[in-house]
Design a protein that fits this description.
Layout lengths: L12 H12 L5 H5 L2 H20 L3 H24 L5 H14 L2 H4 L7 H15 L5 H6 L7 H14 L7 H21 L2 H21 L4 H25 L9 H23 L1
Length: about 280
Protein backbone atom coordinates (compact mmCIF):
# COMPACT_ATOMS: atom_id res chain seq x y z
CA UNK A 1 0.00 0.00 0.00
CA UNK A 2 2.96 2.32 0.61
CA UNK A 3 3.65 2.49 -3.12
CA UNK A 4 0.21 4.05 -3.60
CA UNK A 5 1.22 7.10 -1.57
CA UNK A 6 2.63 9.74 -3.89
CA UNK A 7 5.67 11.62 -2.58
CA UNK A 8 5.62 15.32 -3.52
CA UNK A 9 6.83 18.74 -2.44
CA UNK A 10 3.55 20.03 -0.97
CA UNK A 11 0.91 18.05 0.89
CA UNK A 12 -2.61 18.82 2.16
CA UNK A 13 -5.11 17.36 4.60
CA UNK A 14 -6.12 14.61 2.16
CA UNK A 15 -2.50 13.47 2.06
CA UNK A 16 -2.38 13.35 5.87
CA UNK A 17 -5.45 11.12 5.96
CA UNK A 18 -3.95 8.95 3.22
CA UNK A 19 -0.56 8.49 4.89
CA UNK A 20 -2.18 7.46 8.18
CA UNK A 21 -4.10 4.79 6.28
CA UNK A 22 -0.79 3.60 4.81
CA UNK A 23 0.96 3.54 8.17
CA UNK A 24 -1.83 1.51 9.81
CA UNK A 25 -2.30 -0.90 6.92
CA UNK A 26 -0.58 -4.30 6.63
CA UNK A 27 2.97 -3.66 5.53
CA UNK A 28 2.90 -0.23 7.16
CA UNK A 29 4.41 0.75 10.51
CA UNK A 30 4.12 -1.85 13.33
CA UNK A 31 3.91 0.87 15.99
CA UNK A 32 1.13 2.77 14.21
CA UNK A 33 -0.87 -0.42 13.65
CA UNK A 34 -0.73 -1.30 17.36
CA UNK A 35 -2.08 2.02 18.62
CA UNK A 36 -5.57 2.39 20.12
CA UNK A 37 -7.55 5.32 21.52
CA UNK A 38 -6.40 4.33 24.99
CA UNK A 39 -2.73 3.92 24.12
CA UNK A 40 -2.33 7.40 22.63
CA UNK A 41 -4.80 9.48 24.63
CA UNK A 42 -1.98 10.88 26.78
CA UNK A 43 -0.11 11.81 23.61
CA UNK A 44 -3.12 13.91 22.63
CA UNK A 45 -3.00 15.79 25.93
CA UNK A 46 0.76 16.28 25.67
CA UNK A 47 0.54 17.65 22.13
CA UNK A 48 -2.24 20.04 23.16
CA UNK A 49 -0.12 21.44 25.98
CA UNK A 50 2.76 21.88 23.53
CA UNK A 51 0.45 24.05 21.41
CA UNK A 52 -0.24 26.14 24.52
CA UNK A 53 3.51 26.38 25.14
CA UNK A 54 4.04 27.64 21.58
CA UNK A 55 1.34 30.28 22.07
CA UNK A 56 2.87 31.39 25.37
CA UNK A 57 6.30 31.64 23.73
CA UNK A 58 4.75 33.53 20.80
CA UNK A 59 6.66 31.23 18.46
CA UNK A 60 5.02 31.04 15.05
CA UNK A 61 7.29 28.23 13.85
CA UNK A 62 6.69 26.17 16.99
CA UNK A 63 2.94 26.78 16.79
CA UNK A 64 2.84 25.59 13.19
CA UNK A 65 4.66 22.39 14.12
CA UNK A 66 2.62 21.66 17.25
CA UNK A 67 -0.70 22.28 15.51
CA UNK A 68 0.39 19.66 13.01
CA UNK A 69 1.03 17.21 15.84
CA UNK A 70 -2.46 17.83 17.23
CA UNK A 71 -3.95 17.38 13.76
CA UNK A 72 -2.08 14.07 13.49
CA UNK A 73 -3.77 12.90 16.69
CA UNK A 74 -7.20 13.83 15.32
CA UNK A 75 -6.61 11.99 12.07
CA UNK A 76 -5.23 8.94 13.91
CA UNK A 77 -8.28 8.65 16.17
CA UNK A 78 -10.59 9.20 13.20
CA UNK A 79 -8.85 6.49 11.19
CA UNK A 80 -9.23 4.01 14.05
CA UNK A 81 -12.98 4.57 13.97
CA UNK A 82 -13.03 4.43 10.17
CA UNK A 83 -11.42 0.99 10.34
CA UNK A 84 -14.28 -0.13 12.59
CA UNK A 85 -16.86 1.30 10.19
CA UNK A 86 -18.07 3.97 12.63
CA UNK A 87 -17.03 7.34 11.17
CA UNK A 88 -14.34 8.98 9.05
CA UNK A 89 -12.28 12.16 9.27
CA UNK A 90 -14.70 13.73 6.77
CA UNK A 91 -17.55 12.93 9.15
CA UNK A 92 -15.68 14.71 11.95
CA UNK A 93 -15.15 17.78 9.74
CA UNK A 94 -18.78 17.72 8.60
CA UNK A 95 -20.10 17.54 12.16
CA UNK A 96 -18.09 20.51 13.41
CA UNK A 97 -19.10 22.66 10.42
CA UNK A 98 -22.74 21.80 10.99
CA UNK A 99 -22.37 22.61 14.69
CA UNK A 100 -20.84 26.01 13.90
CA UNK A 101 -23.69 26.84 11.53
CA UNK A 102 -26.35 25.85 14.07
CA UNK A 103 -24.67 27.68 16.96
CA UNK A 104 -24.29 30.92 15.01
CA UNK A 105 -27.92 31.82 14.25
CA UNK A 106 -26.82 35.46 14.53
CA UNK A 107 -24.64 34.86 11.45
CA UNK A 108 -26.50 32.20 9.46
CA UNK A 109 -30.02 32.82 10.76
CA UNK A 110 -32.42 35.53 11.88
CA UNK A 111 -31.08 36.11 15.40
CA UNK A 112 -29.47 39.51 16.03
CA UNK A 113 -26.29 39.86 18.10
CA UNK A 114 -24.87 43.37 18.24
CA UNK A 115 -21.97 42.59 20.57
CA UNK A 116 -19.92 39.76 22.03
CA UNK A 117 -22.18 39.31 25.07
CA UNK A 118 -25.27 38.88 22.89
CA UNK A 119 -23.38 36.45 20.63
CA UNK A 120 -22.35 34.35 23.63
CA UNK A 121 -25.91 34.34 24.99
CA UNK A 122 -27.12 33.14 21.61
CA UNK A 123 -24.46 30.42 21.55
CA UNK A 124 -25.35 29.22 25.06
CA UNK A 125 -29.08 29.14 24.31
CA UNK A 126 -28.58 27.05 21.19
CA UNK A 127 -26.09 24.79 22.99
CA UNK A 128 -28.57 24.03 25.78
CA UNK A 129 -31.30 23.28 23.26
CA UNK A 130 -29.22 21.11 20.90
CA UNK A 131 -27.69 19.11 23.73
CA UNK A 132 -31.08 18.56 25.29
CA UNK A 133 -29.96 20.11 28.58
CA UNK A 134 -32.99 21.08 30.66
CA UNK A 135 -31.13 22.88 33.45
CA UNK A 136 -27.73 24.14 34.59
CA UNK A 137 -26.99 20.92 36.47
CA UNK A 138 -27.07 19.02 33.19
CA UNK A 139 -24.92 21.75 31.66
CA UNK A 140 -22.40 21.35 34.50
CA UNK A 141 -22.33 17.59 34.00
CA UNK A 142 -21.26 18.22 30.40
CA UNK A 143 -18.00 19.79 31.63
CA UNK A 144 -15.42 16.96 31.39
CA UNK A 145 -14.21 15.68 34.76
CA UNK A 146 -10.88 15.07 33.04
CA UNK A 147 -10.17 18.81 32.73
CA UNK A 148 -7.47 20.30 34.96
CA UNK A 149 -9.17 20.75 38.34
CA UNK A 150 -8.83 24.54 38.55
CA UNK A 151 -10.16 24.99 35.02
CA UNK A 152 -13.11 22.67 35.69
CA UNK A 153 -13.97 24.46 38.94
CA UNK A 154 -13.97 27.85 37.23
CA UNK A 155 -16.21 26.58 34.42
CA UNK A 156 -18.66 25.04 36.90
CA UNK A 157 -18.79 28.24 38.96
CA UNK A 158 -19.39 30.29 35.82
CA UNK A 159 -22.36 28.10 34.90
CA UNK A 160 -23.83 28.44 38.42
CA UNK A 161 -23.43 32.22 38.27
CA UNK A 162 -25.36 32.37 34.99
CA UNK A 163 -28.60 31.56 36.83
CA UNK A 164 -27.88 33.83 39.81
CA UNK A 165 -26.24 31.31 42.17
CA UNK A 166 -23.46 33.71 43.11
CA UNK A 167 -22.25 36.28 45.60
CA UNK A 168 -23.30 39.90 45.07
CA UNK A 169 -19.65 40.94 44.96
CA UNK A 170 -16.13 39.60 45.48
CA UNK A 171 -16.34 40.41 49.20
CA UNK A 172 -18.73 37.51 49.72
CA UNK A 173 -16.33 35.17 47.94
CA UNK A 174 -13.41 36.38 50.08
CA UNK A 175 -15.41 35.88 53.30
CA UNK A 176 -16.26 32.36 52.14
CA UNK A 177 -12.54 31.67 51.67
CA UNK A 178 -11.81 32.70 55.27
CA UNK A 179 -14.68 30.49 56.44
CA UNK A 180 -13.27 27.51 54.53
CA UNK A 181 -9.77 28.15 55.93
CA UNK A 182 -11.19 28.06 59.47
CA UNK A 183 -12.89 24.75 58.68
CA UNK A 184 -9.61 23.39 57.32
CA UNK A 185 -7.82 24.42 60.53
CA UNK A 186 -10.46 22.61 62.58
CA UNK A 187 -10.09 19.47 60.47
CA UNK A 188 -6.30 19.60 60.87
CA UNK A 189 -6.62 19.96 64.64
CA UNK A 190 -8.90 16.91 64.71
CA UNK A 191 -6.46 14.98 62.52
CA UNK A 192 -9.15 13.38 60.34
CA UNK A 193 -7.49 12.73 56.99
CA UNK A 194 -10.63 12.58 54.87
CA UNK A 195 -12.00 15.77 56.44
CA UNK A 196 -8.68 17.54 55.88
CA UNK A 197 -8.69 16.62 52.19
CA UNK A 198 -12.33 17.65 51.87
CA UNK A 199 -11.81 21.04 53.52
CA UNK A 200 -8.61 21.69 51.58
CA UNK A 201 -10.56 21.12 48.38
CA UNK A 202 -13.13 23.68 49.57
CA UNK A 203 -10.32 26.20 50.15
CA UNK A 204 -9.06 25.69 46.60
CA UNK A 205 -12.59 25.94 45.20
CA UNK A 206 -13.09 29.22 47.07
CA UNK A 207 -9.81 30.59 45.71
CA UNK A 208 -10.95 29.77 42.20
CA UNK A 209 -14.23 31.58 42.86
CA UNK A 210 -12.34 34.73 43.84
CA UNK A 211 -10.27 34.41 40.66
CA UNK A 212 -13.49 34.28 38.63
CA UNK A 213 -14.79 37.43 40.31
CA UNK A 214 -11.64 39.43 39.60
CA UNK A 215 -11.38 38.05 36.05
CA UNK A 216 -8.21 36.04 36.65
CA UNK A 217 -7.65 32.65 35.03
CA UNK A 218 -6.79 30.44 37.99
CA UNK A 219 -4.77 27.97 35.90
CA UNK A 220 -2.62 30.70 34.38
CA UNK A 221 -2.24 32.48 37.72
CA UNK A 222 -0.99 29.32 39.43
CA UNK A 223 1.34 28.56 36.52
CA UNK A 224 2.80 32.07 36.79
CA UNK A 225 3.25 31.73 40.56
CA UNK A 226 4.96 28.37 40.10
CA UNK A 227 7.31 29.92 37.53
CA UNK A 228 7.99 32.76 39.97
CA UNK A 229 8.82 30.31 42.75
CA UNK A 230 11.18 28.38 40.50
CA UNK A 231 12.95 31.57 39.44
CA UNK A 232 13.43 32.73 43.03
CA UNK A 233 14.45 29.27 44.23
CA UNK A 234 17.08 29.06 41.49
CA UNK A 235 18.55 32.33 42.75
CA UNK A 236 18.45 31.12 46.37
CA UNK A 237 20.30 27.97 45.37
CA UNK A 238 22.86 30.04 43.45
CA UNK A 239 23.46 32.43 46.37
CA UNK A 240 23.75 29.52 48.81
CA UNK A 241 26.38 27.90 46.61
CA UNK A 242 28.32 31.16 46.28
CA UNK A 243 28.26 31.67 50.06
CA UNK A 244 29.19 28.07 50.87
CA UNK A 245 25.85 27.40 52.53
CA UNK A 246 24.55 23.82 52.72
CA UNK A 247 20.81 24.25 52.20
CA UNK A 248 19.96 20.82 53.64
CA UNK A 249 21.54 21.63 57.01
CA UNK A 250 20.71 25.35 57.12
CA UNK A 251 18.13 26.76 59.51
CA UNK A 252 14.81 27.98 58.18
CA UNK A 253 15.86 31.49 59.26
CA UNK A 254 18.96 31.35 57.06
CA UNK A 255 17.00 30.06 54.09
CA UNK A 256 14.31 32.70 54.65
CA UNK A 257 17.02 35.38 54.57
CA UNK A 258 18.21 34.13 51.20
CA UNK A 259 14.62 33.92 49.97
CA UNK A 260 13.88 37.53 50.95
CA UNK A 261 17.04 38.66 49.16
CA UNK A 262 16.11 36.69 46.04
CA UNK A 263 12.61 38.14 46.17
CA UNK A 264 13.95 41.70 46.30
CA UNK A 265 16.31 41.06 43.40
CA UNK A 266 13.59 39.52 41.23
CA UNK A 267 11.10 42.27 42.08
CA UNK A 268 13.74 44.85 41.16
CA UNK A 269 14.34 43.11 37.82
CA UNK A 270 10.59 43.05 37.18
CA UNK A 271 10.30 46.80 37.89
CA UNK A 272 13.10 47.54 35.42
CA UNK A 273 11.41 45.43 32.73
CA UNK A 274 8.06 47.17 33.30
CA UNK A 275 9.68 50.59 33.05
Amino acid sequence: MAEEFVLKDKYNIDDLVAIIKVLRAPGGCPWDREQTHESIKKNFIEETYEVVEAINKQSTDMLREELGDVLLQIVLHSEMESENGNFTFDDVANDIVQKLVVRHPHVFGEVVANNTAEALNSWDAVKLKTKGQKNQTESMLSVPRELPALMRAQKIQHKAAKIGFDWDNVGGAVDKLYEEIDELKTAMEQGKRLDIEDEFGDVLFSCVNIARFIDVDSEEALTASTDKFMSRFSLVEQMASEQGIDMKSSSIEELDRLWDKAKKIKNSEKSVMED
